[in-house]
């Protein structure tokens, strides 16, 4: 009978700098691939921020006693998206501002609901 050879344990480590760099480059590749859909992202940003998030301060202030600052945050993110898109910003700027606006608005909603 032949004995099996067992490999010693290998050291497993994650290079965080390399991982963050890969994620960042994949994000930029995704943004560049969406250049052909720039107008679609413009309308999507207007619809999501204009319809869903501009109504959220009224709900948050009325039902959850949120401060008036919520209105300022929501309007600021909406007009930042509007100016960036109508000013002819590139797709990287447009989508980054759109995603940041989503994160900020969802964050304010989660802060005052919970």
Structure description:
With 114 residues, the chain is mostly helical. The protein is built from five helices and no strands. It has helices at 16-33, 38-53, 56-64, 69-86, 91-113. Helix 2 packs antiparallel against helix 4 and helix 2 runs parallel beside helix 5 (91-113). The model has no long low-confidence stretch (mean pLDDT 91).
Entry summary:
Helices cover 74% and strands 0% of the residues.
Quickly list its features.
114 residues; mainly alpha; 5 helices; elongated
Indicate the topology.
Blueprint: H1 16-33, H2 38-53, H3 56-64, H4 69-86, H5 91-113
* Strand-pairing-aware structural class: mainly alpha
Detail the poorly predicted runs.
Answer: none
Query: What is the radius of gyration computed over CA atoms, rounded to a whole number of angstroms?
Result: 22 Å
Biggest sheet overview? none
């Amino acid at each position: 009978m032949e004995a099996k050879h067992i490999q010693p344990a290998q050291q497993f480590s994650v290079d965080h700098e390399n991982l963050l760099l890969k994620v960042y480059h994949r994000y930029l590749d995704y943004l560049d691939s969406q250049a052909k859909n720039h107008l679609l992202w413009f309308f999507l940003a207007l619809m999501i921020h204009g319809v869903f998030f501009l109504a959220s301060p009224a709900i948050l202030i009325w039902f959850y006693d949120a401060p008036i600052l919520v209105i300022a945050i929501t309007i600021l993110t909406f007009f930042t998206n509007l100016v960036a898109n109508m000013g002819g910003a590139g797709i990287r700027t447009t989508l980054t501002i759109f995603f940041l606006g989503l994160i900020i608005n969802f964050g304010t909603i989660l802060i005052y609901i919970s």
